[in-house]
Every structure is written in C-alpha cells, then in structure tokens.
Amino acid sequence: MNKISLPSMLLLVIQRDLILAMRKRADVLTTLFFFVLVVSLFPLAVGSEMDMLRKMAPGVVWVAALLASMLSLGRMFSADYQDGTLEQMMLVPQSLSFMVLGKIAAHWMLSGLPLVLIAPVLGMQFDMSGEALLVLVVSLLIGTPVLSMIGAFGAALTLGLRGGGVLVSLLVLPLCVPVLIFGTGAVASVAGGVSAMPNLALLGAFLLMSLLFTPWVSAQALRISME
Amino acid sequence: MLKVTNLACTRGEHQLFAGLNFRLAAGELLQVQGENGSGKTTLLRALCGFIQPFAGEIRWQGKALSELGEEYFANLVYLGHANAIKDELSALENLRISSALSGCTVSDKDAIAALRRMGLRGRETFAVKMLSQGQRRRVALARLLINRARLWILDEPLAALDVGAVGLMQEIIGEHLSNQGLVIFTTHQSLQVSGAETRQLKLS
After folding, report:
1. Contact B76 A91 (CB under 8 A)
2. What is the pTM of this model?
3. At what angle do helices A113-125 and A50-71 cross, to 10 degrees?
C-alpha cells in the first residue's frame, strides 16, 4: 500500500466518473441531443432568411449550450450523495476542493466538450463563415468550463433538496450571464469586422477566476449540504 | 486516544443528546446503543466531522478535530448506512477506488485477497448490481481489510449480513483491536468479539 499523491487522486476521480459515464451512456447522449435539437429548431421556426440566421447564430448556439449544461448539473453530485460515496470523498485526507475540481473536470469532459466538438457542424446550418466558426469553437472551449464550475456551485448548494433541478437552474443561469455576453460578443465581433480578442480575453479571465474560487466555494457548500 | 467531552448534538430544533462524555483507548471496542432516533448515527457522523456538534469537543490524540482538519481523516475509516459502492462497477474496481479515496493505492492481489476473505470468491469482476444486498455489504466491508486507519467507525455493519459473515466480522474486528485499533459501532444484533470487552454507551 503506497500513499497516493494529489495529481493521481485528481486523475482517479476524473477516470472514475468517465468510466461510470461510459457504462451509462444515455446520460451523456441526452445532453448532446438536447443541444443539437434546440439549435436545429431555430432555423425551422424563424424561416430561412440567411441574413437573420447568420446574425442570430452565436446567440442561439450559446443559449442552447447554456441550457444543455444545466440539464446535466443535477447528476453532478446526486448519485454520489445517494450511494454514500460523497461521504467517503469528504473523508479523503486531501483537500475536498481537489475532489470537487476532479468532478468538475469530468463533468465538463462529458457535457461541455461534446458540445464544443459538434458546434461547428451546427454553425453551418446558420451559414456562419469559417472565421466565425473558429471563434465560436474557441469561445465555447473557454466558456463551457466556466459553466461547469458555476454549475457545480449551484449543484452543491441544492444537493438533497426536493425539486433541486429547477432551483439549480434559477440559481445558476443569472450567474452565467457574463459568460453568455462575452461568448456571443466574441463571435458577433467577427461578423462586425473587429477583433474577437478582447471578448475572448475577458472569457479567459472568467475561466481563471472561477478556477480559483469555485472548487473551494463548492466544497464549502457540499459540507453545508451534508450536515 | 479519542476523547469526547460534554458533547451535545441537535437535529433541527430537537436535541438528541447532551453532556456526553467518553474516552476510547487503543484496543478498545465501543458499542453505541439506543432506540431508533436516539442519535446513534448523528453521534457517529459527528465523530467523523460531518456534523459540527452543538456543544462540546472531540479530541483525537489530544488535538481537537477542528485543529486537525484533513490529517484526522487519514486515521479514520467510516462505514455508513449507504455502502458507497457503484452498481455499474465491479467489486474489484469499487474496492480500488474506495482504497484510493482513503489515500492509499492497493495492488490487485491484495484487493482480490480481501474480497475472497469476505466470501466473494469468483465474484470479484461481476458488476455490483448483479450481487445481493448482503454481498454488496461484504464488498463495502472489504474496505476495512485494505485500510490501515486506526479508528473504525461502523454504522450498522451487520445489516443484511448472514450468520457466517457476522462471525467473520467478529474475527476481523478482533484482529483490528489486537493491532491496537479502535472500533466504534452501532448494531441491533449481538456482536461478541473474543479477547476484547465490549464497552457500552447508551443514548436515550
């Protein structure tokens, strides 16, 4: 029996969540299909006027990504809470924040990353230019981890509450507004002919800030929810 | 080693117990008794640090739990009502993960040996959802065998176990006590550990 180091503990938590998700694939696929469906509904509903579609594309993709990431938040801690694994995680002789960071990373890989990968295909439905598609992917790549992190905080706070699923959306969605604004702003600026860098840089700043604070805050929220 | 002074815990507005004092030294076994709802689980959870006690203090090796923080968890293994095992994973995978969460890696050989001792020979790589309630409890209990923590806190360890497994648990607890371990447990069944006297703590 050897002592386990912090990075390998982190990897283990991520690996465990990925294995569990692979054995229960429906959960991952629902998020992805939801995203694809919501985005595809817009061209059907508003008609095929190319100029309008091109203009609304960044907003539609980003809002759909936001809603899709809300969908899977309820599952982030609840399964571990119900079968007692979360109690064991709180007894880990390392900081609970790192456990939470591992859970967040796994959650993003399962619910954020697939959206990033499929977004360019959906963007083509809206006749987005190549450059705009690239910026869309980059903005989602920076922005979706922030959604997972803010979501983790909401999920931790509402753990064990009845109707927590709706409550978590009400709690988290307003907090995600800045991410939405800068994410869509970056893509829209390409169409407007200006550099997307300022918006992307601000998104990056959000990512760093949430990386610093949300695991710790979520860990505290978990401790409160477990009492 | 473990010293509890004047401990009081509440659940909402309702006071479960107050003025609780006890000490537990190495090699001692403590059974917490009481009716349903008398606060046995709450006491055990407070000893794990999940719950902040309303009043009083818990000390481990002379230091308060709040001072010790994560250091304390390395000395502790807790087995709650829930088994903390995943249905989708095999017994072996579950054991490997719970061992890692307690801060140690375990070789496959040791893990398989622990599962076999718990009477799960031939079922090491089955998904846990194929196992019965009693067998799942055995998977959870196998965690005790691969852990080097000194303090065992067991909430109803005998739930769903058959007679043979109860005998095995008595043996395992006896071994742990003779290695200078400490055990605190609750049960509604009788548990006789040879070579050690069971101290009783009654909550009312």
Report:
1. yes
2. 0.91
3. 160
